[in-house]
Predict the structure.
Amino acid sequence: MRVVFFGSPEAALPSIRALRGAGHEIPLIVAQPDRPAGRGKKLLPGPVKRFALEHEIPMVQPEKIRQDPEILDRLRAAEPDIQVVVAYGQIIPMPVIALPRFWTINVHFSILPRYRGAAPVAAAIAAGETRTGVTIFRLDQKIDEGDVLSGEETAIGPAETAGELEARLAELGAGLLLRTLAQIETIVPRPQDHSQATLAPKLRKEDGLLNWGKTAVEIDRRVRAMTPRPSAYTHLHEGRLIVLAGCPEEGVASPAHQGPPGTIAGLSKTGISVACGGGTRYLITRLNPENRVEMAAAAFILGGGIQTGDLLE
């Protein structure tokens, strides 16, 4: 089958590799434009573009696909049987969606209609879900509202971060994509139940700011949901402290005497114990202080930058 592939980040790679490995022909890749990265802010190609260059696959990178007058001609010339979208990051116009005979399909990292939007993995973790999955659906002009072709569920690990879960879902989605394409002529699309829809909008940097008035379980979900991007953080002595890993503490003694939420309640070889809402505590085990390298919380403690009674804000 001739497949035009739309995608840009690391999460799209398992699907495009699976397509190529299964013998599907990829005449064209559509990716996001190169973006500045690193301290030098140099324009760097994304993972899918690097894949295209490595395998000498023609590609286009429209700045805004809805306003590009040439994109439809490039797609027509590619003569796709179907178009596959995985984490592309732009809204695709209807003339492009409807071009192939088997339409344009999307690999989405949730069980639709739950968590429609740009950040379904983080949203599921932050909400305390124990299960999620992958849905393949037919694109339409509304965000993630198209008819469903297939889906597969998986459990969310109790300590799994958004980055780890997304990597698993990307692999799960790649396998589901191949099985879906093998049955594309016989699958009957199923409308979504829009009354059950929830949203997962794009994450902003400020979404990572930790509210220590929440319980330790809620803090843990937020840290995992924001890791690795845009990252969970707090403030210590007017400096920014990125929280990379931790866990709720069990068996906390005398929670009424631990101070207000955000108070450093204890320091140990295992990490930094922080008072949270409801008399709970969260243990920070790994962090990244502002303008310093990532480190274990125990190493940060040894550096003398924190003491019991300090307040995280």
Notes: Residues 56 and 245 are 40 Å apart (CA to CA).
